[in-house]
Amino acid sequence: MGIFDKCYSFTKADEAKAMGFYPYFTPIQGIDGSKVKVYNTEMIMVGSNNYLGLLNSPKVKKAAREAVDKYGVATCGSRLLNGTLDLHVELEEKLAQFMKKEAALTFSTGFQTNQGIISTIIGRGDAVITDFMVHASIRDACRLCLGNMYRYKHNDMADLERKLASIDKEAGKLIVVDGVFSMEGDLANLPDIVELAKKYNAKTMVDDAHGIGVMGNNGRGTAEYFGVEDELDLIMGTFSKSFASLGGFVAGKIKIISYIKHFARALIFSSSITPASVATVLATLDIIQKEPKRRERLWKITNKMRSSFQAMGFDTGPSETQIIPVIIRIDELAFMLWKLLIENGILTFPAVYPAVPKGKALIRTSYSATHTDEELDTVLEVFERCGKQLGILR
Questions:
Q1: 48, 137, 182, 319: which one is catalytic?
Q2: Is the separation of the CB atoms in 129 and 156 below 8 Å?
Q3: In angstroms, rounded to a whole number, what is the distance separating the alpha carbons of residues 68 and 61?
Q4: Could you tell me the residue ranges of all domains in the chain?
Q5: 277 classed as catalytic
Q6: What's the fold here for domain 5-51+292-389?
Q7: For this structure, is 210 an active site residue?
Q8: Per-residue pLDDT tens for 170-228?
Q9: Domain 58-290 - what CATH class?
């Protein structure tokens, strides 16, 4: 078989486009608050990770512009050599302070953050144990490491314990889990995970990309929400959600962070975060700490939307957060609902296998603190009408 034969035999995307059911790589022509322009039409966005609505904050945009004026548009170098700005150092110090950890380290993307941490920490003979539903960046990082990967059934603590018990007692062990699962919007059982880690002499890492900024009284994420911040060894976060930027970070004890800093190939051999992106995170971090009303508004919206979807008869699964899936189960029906929503001015996206388990196709909706009540009522009205049109609702 020729090396490119698989490329030429891949026709599903072209077939979906021809039928008008291709939902991916959709060009957004403009953004105004919670509305976007797509196909020259204004739509209400309910598929973004802009949870606190800081994407268009005047304060944030001003900080980004000033950083470009002072530092230019890029660093043109890795953190190890010429790519460290005083802005990077300032951000890492403030993130460590915010997260109540000794130190923090930033990476250029969230994907690279997980890759850099896990592939650096897990050595030959070590074990990394993950929930079956963790983000793809964690799974790929586990494949890159020299140790052994174990996966347990989603949120099944009995299965996690079985996996831990099966591993050599002398092996180094790291449990890695999402704080908020990105498709179903449910939470990891961090209190029980922490207890099992103690019992089996394992360390813990939480990818809290969708929790930081949103969860906890101060927005420090799922660990704060469950009251286990001091018992987790590493907390990872990304800047492409609540922080309205690009990049990622890890926070933990200074010696661990220093080791990752000097050995993570994803950090050493990649250009550092751009000045505008760093300045954006600094500005949004300040807002997260000073404006708790944004979180309060987001939770009010979240509770309204989940209860309303459920009252209509939609299945919202195990969601406990601002990520609310509308579970359709049948792939074709999910794509049909997505298309109808688009035609009625609602932009969101379907998720099918392998993003979700087979038979669990869904429309992933997520919300921002800046959604208006009028916009939310429109979203609900359209979902109900389209759901009835397709026979999903009676």
A1: 182
A2: no
A3: 11
A4: 5-51+292-389, 58-290
A5: no
A6: Aspartate Aminotransferase, domain 1 (3.90.1150)
A7: yes
A8: 999 999 999 999 999 999 999 999 999 999 999 999 999 999 999 999 999 999 999 99
A9: alpha beta
